[in-house]
């Protein structure tokens, strides 16, 4: 198969391999002569499309023709323009959702914390309250790794960042909430929180923000108040290590698993292979009693009504409307266009408009009901599918998913990226070429969905791979030590 018409209503098809000008393709009993070269992942017109007529892909408009487009012509950002503009009013039209997926009583080998929460990793984290002590936390982590055997401890990691001081209002609270959620994340078998002493994010107030916590596993140091921060920090870390190294894995139901859904470096295959795979997996996990979270609010624009119609209640619908319109308002207040989202890499990969990107992006959450909507910095409250407020930026959104309580982030990509956040970040390629070229980045290939496997066959392999990862099998970002955090910056810096 060299091209694909995704939906019977579509007036474009997607090249699955590079096609060339003058080549004839047979579709629905008639031949089309290509008027342009069409790279893999890109679109070509199946019929003449008049100026201002809608371009249909996935069965929905993804924009309109800027000028007349001829049959067989390459359709890209030069010939197509978004239909989207401004804030919208929405109506709730709930649609029934039936998932006929049996409970298979699957388990993984994880950690059960004293408060009942579950982890798929048992790590020691060193978290600064402010960027001024980044060097200190990195040195402490290196020292502890050097002197320990890492018995039953999956990793010892410092998480430097640039925030914690000179921030005001919501911007300051965003930093505090993300760091709080990291400290309380179940993957952190133990945490040393390192402060300076004069920062906005004062250690005493931050400690109160945690609520009840295990003092044998979470400890604090304010470096301005101790004579030798390395000596004091190492003493505290050794105490933490003695506790964490005693933790052991046990059998945990898959219903306890919480998974974040994210895409980045997308291409024309994203909405055909990897994102639909995540959608099928998301529905499967939810049917087992598990939880998935979709974020990247700007990449819901143009497909938001589809999500709204799947809201489990009018209250959840109202929260979803706020989620969408508040993010649009954020763009407008900063003098930016709401609907110019696709990056140069997206366009090079075959994605021309925000509607096209969104209709592919939202496939990651399958067909399940939306049970809850979370603001940035909030933790998961409900089983099933939740929506989370965060931007499309890969590292910011992935950090938000992890801070929300996700055990894993499933990250689809057509162009590739090596990064990882503070939970295992599983890279799923949309095409086999990327999987072959970047084995040190990509953990799973969904490209075979347009080659020799059905999405259900690939999902069965994917389920077993995710269970192995949840049971301790490392993914590429962990093996390479690519672990970062990024916090949503929204305000004034003093």
Walkthrough of the structure:
It is built from 13 helices and 23 strands. It has helices at 134-147, 169-183, 203-209, 229-244, 274-287, 304-308, 314-333, 344-348, 354-361, 394-403, 432-437, 455-470, 476-479, and strands at residues 3-4, 12-15, 24-27, 30-33, 43-45, 54-57, 60-65, 74-75, 80-81, 107-112, 118-119, 123-128, 155-158, 188-195, 218-222, 250-253, 258-263, 291-294, 370-374, 384-388, 408-413, 425-429, 444-445. It is globular, with a radius of gyration of 24 Å. The mean pLDDT is 95.
What's the main sheet like? Answer: 7 strands, parallel
Helix content range: 25-40%
* Percentage of residues in strands: 15-25%
- What low-confidence regions span 5 or more consecutive residues with pLDDT below 50? none
Overall outline: globular
Beta strands, count: 23
Distance between the termini: 57 Å
Overall pLDDT score: 95
Based on secondary structure, the structural category is alpha/beta
Number of helices: 13
Supply the key terms.
494 residues, alpha/beta, Archaeosine Trna-guanine Transglycosylase, Chain: A, domain 4, Rossmann fold, seven-stranded parallel β-sheet, 23 strands, globular
Topology:
Blueprint: E1 3-4, E2 12-15, E3 24-27, E4 30-33, E5 43-45, E6 54-57, E7 60-65, E8 74-75, E9 80-81, E10 107-112, E11 118-119, E12 123-128, H1 134-147, E13 155-158, H2 169-183, E14 188-195, H3 203-209, E15 218-222, H4 229-244, E16 250-253, E17 258-263, H5 274-287, E18 291-294, H6 304-308, H7 314-333, H8 344-348, H9 354-361, E19 370-374, E20 384-388, H10 394-403, E21 408-413, E22 425-429, H11 432-437, E23 444-445, H12 455-470, H13 476-479
Parallel strand pairs: 12-13, 12-14, 14-15, 17-18, 17-21, 18-20, 19-20, 21-22, 22-23
Antiparallel strand pairs: 1-2, 2-5, 3-4, 5-8, 6-7, 7-9, 10-11, 10-16
